[in-house]
Design goal:
heterodimer; A: 114 residues; mainly beta; 38% strand; B: 248 residues; alpha+beta; 8 helices
Chain lengths: 114, 248
């Protein structure tokens, strides 16, 4: 919905819970900001979808209500980039903010291996 | 059964109610992922920094802890070294017990061990840990993240493939099993890299099951792979193809 940004969190009991907020309600937005900051402080991973791509949130700028994205992802050490593949566009290392009110984010709790 | 006992049973909460109340309690404390639920038969392995880390090792059992340890036959062994023998498909352990060194050779990934893992996972599915509603919800979320074709594969086979645009590694995401990472080339064909296993919050020891429904595990790994592949490889346990834990 246009008036709602949203945050969903993977949940043991319900599979997935949605924390919606009305961007027209300052109290609702403030509550959502507190939850987002708290999730990151607790070690949750937050992922947002931007232009069809999934990005990891590095931190949350409560003043500007923006998710600050992590630096460009690196290849894991176990894999060597295939030189035949086209290079992914975009400069690595450039941080940018995406507005909370227009973005859907997914929270994933700290992982326990397996 | 006496009337009083019948009344007592009727007043007992259902597992759905217990799970819901646990979820409410967790959310009141800011843990939006909820808390893992101890079940009978399998110990919980909880992420070390989780606020409910005291649940690590928890299981619902009527046997006293001392008797459980005795029945398990746990001796005071020290493993000095171990390796996998590819030609014989066995694990070799050099162990020390009361100053005496011995060598033990154990078959691995043999059928009964694979069956034990599979039955354990089925046991978690049959337990109160997971609910049908939660799995359907998670599958609904997964359907929003992948193509129609990939979701059809997942629905029909429990698996789907996705190749990383960055590294070229192909990941086979599987319901209730570790994710398999492979790389294909014309020169070498398909090469197995690792079976990656991780679960948000906690998992049940000796099974492939996490404390969240299986599709939630898949979603977590998929998001990590797409956003930060290095994070996925750093956080996951890497199982070789010959290990039972690989689920191969």
């Amino acid at each position: 919905m246009d008036d709602e940004g949203s945050l969903s969190v993977l949940n043991c009991a319900e599979g997935d819970i949605k924390i919606s907020f009305n961007k027209a309600d300052p109290q609702d937005v403030a509550r959502a900001s507190r939850i987002i900051k708290d999730l990151l402080r607790r070690g949750y991973f937050l992922f947002v979808e931007i232009d069809g791509e999934i990005k990891k949130v590095k931190r949350f700028d409560a003043e500007h209500e923006e998710y600050i994205l992590a630096d460009g992802p690196e290849n894991p050490a176990e894999t060597v980039p295939d030189p035949a593949l086209p290079k992914v566009k975009g400069k690595p290392g450039r941080k940018k903010g995406v507005p909370m009110r227009r973005t859907t984010a997914t929270g994933v709790g700290r992982t326990a291996g397996g | 059964m006496e009337t009083a006992e019948v009344d007592e049973v009727r007043e007992m909460p259902t597992w759905d109610q217990i799970r819901q109340r646990l979820n409410e309690l967790a959310q009141e404390r800011g843990e939006w992922a909820s808390y893992p639920l101890p079940i009978k038969g399998h110990k919980l392995v909880v992420e070390p920094s989780h606020p409910m880390h005291q649940l690590n090792g928890a299981t619902l059992s009527s046997a006293p802890a001392e008797r459980l340890a005795e029945e398990a036959g746990i001796a005071d062994l020290k493993v000095r070294n171990w390796w996998y023998n590819w030609s014989k498909s066995i694990l070799v352990y050099v162990v020390e017990e009361e100053g005496k060194i011995t060598v033990a050779k154990l078959p691995t990934n043999y059928p009964m061990e694979r069956l034990r893992f599979a039955m354990g996972t089925l046991g978690v599915a049959a337990s109160p840990a997971w609910s049908t509603a939660a799995e359907f919800k998670a599958m609904g979320k997964l359907s929003e993240l992948v193509s129609d074709h990939a979701f059809k594969c997942y629905l029909c086979s429990g698996m789907f493939l996705e190749t990383s645009k960055r590294s070229g590694v192909t990941y086979m995401f599987r319901k209730g099993r570790p994710t398999l990472a492979t790389r294909s080339s014309e020169e070498h064909g398909v090469r197995f890299l690792a079976a990656l296993c991780l679960h948000p919050i906690a998992y049940y020891e000796g099974t492939f099951a996490g404390c969240m429904v299986p599709s939630d595990d898949v979603i977590g790994m998929l998001l990590m792979m797409r956003a930060d592949e290095r994070l996925l490889w750093r956080k996951a346990n890497h199982h070789p193809v010959w290990a039972t834990e690989s689920g191969v």
